[in-house]
Known about the structure:
Layout: H1 3-9, H2 14-20, H3 25-43, E1 55-58, H4 64-76, E2 79-82, H5 89-101, E3 106-108, H6 116-130, E4 135-138, H7 153-181, E5 190-195, H8 208-228, E6 233-240, H9 246-259, H10 266-274, H11 283-293, E7 305-308
Helix pairs in contact: 1-3, 4-11, 6-7, 7-8
The structure holds NADP nicotinamide-adenine-dinucleotide phosphate (NAP).
NADP nicotinamide-adenine-dinucleotide phosphate (NAP) binds at residues 59-60, 62-66, 84-85, 87-88, 112-114, 139-142, 162, 166, 195, 197, 240, 242-243, 245-248.
Amino acid sequence: MNCSSLRFAGRVGMWRSHWSTLRPLSKVISTDLVNRRAIKAAYSSLSRQSSKGKSVIITGSSRGIGKAIALRLAADGYDVCINDLSVNQAACDKVAEEIRGMGRKACVALADVTNRDQVKEMIGTSVRELGPLHTMIANAGIVQVQHVLELSDEDFQRMFAINVFGVQNCLSEAAKQLISQGNCRPDRPGKLLAASSIVGFRAFPLLPHYSASKWAVRGLIQAYAMELAKHNITANSYAPGIIDTMMWDIIDAGVSKRTGLDPNEVTEKMAHEMMAIDRVGVPEDVAKLVSFLASSDSDFVTGQTQLVDGGIVFT
Length: 315
Ligand code: NAP
């Protein structure tokens, strides 16, 4: 089955057009049957397609959740471009080396995601080293603990520069690259992913601008999903809960300073009080969800923000 017949078969406006034209009902029914058979033939396989030879860029992947995603997607078959700030180069090189040891291609593209030119260069490096791009994961983010009435303009701007503008730079430049390559098909869509959070569903006290930035990611992802479906590109985000990374060292210290809690107890206490599953998450918990979102198993999923939080927020 060729691409144009698949596109025809999947056309969203199909039903509406039936009512607005005066075609005989028998013609409509027979066309629908052909379409439905074509869709069934194209999309009914229960096997996950191999990701071997596909390439992915993961921002902020020198450590934490980004690193776990990089290693998991390499295990899934992806060739991986590791990104982080230049201060984290040594850690990036180590992750890339580990991926090469798994038999995959890997490269490092240092870039600050707030800078669009650097993001373009990062994508250029990845394409040069690993071949055409298939998946972008805008994972890099920062956190800051602050009372809502003590937030400065600079606090707010920095948070949005990285967590929202940084995501936008990566998603939009990756989308342009995917469209210009012309290799996204209905049965092999390009994938855009970004890091949201549980606080993108319900804000946490002391994390006001962080929470707002993660709500913004959800909104952006919905817009990308709607606008890019016609280019055979899906867009989704993942929303981790309390995951044991260096980001929580910052939260522990900030919450402890403002509440008097022992910094060693903040994470455990929050996890114990809030989660259905009584343990802190690990980066690999998130990487497993991202593996699904980056694979063919999620080709019919778009515009979603998927929680992975051990049962804090229920949708
Ligand atoms: P992490 O351990 O702090 O790692 C984030 C990485 O991104 C760091 O290496 C950081 O470098 C880098 N980074 C920061 N600004 C950047 C920029 N402008 N350009 C490129 N890289 C930059 O964080 P994590 O816990 O793995 O979190 C990963 C993502 O998941 C973030 O978006 C975070 O908001 C989200 N998330 C995490 C949790 C959690 O519980 N850990 C929960 C919900 C959502 P520097 O440290 O040198 O700045």
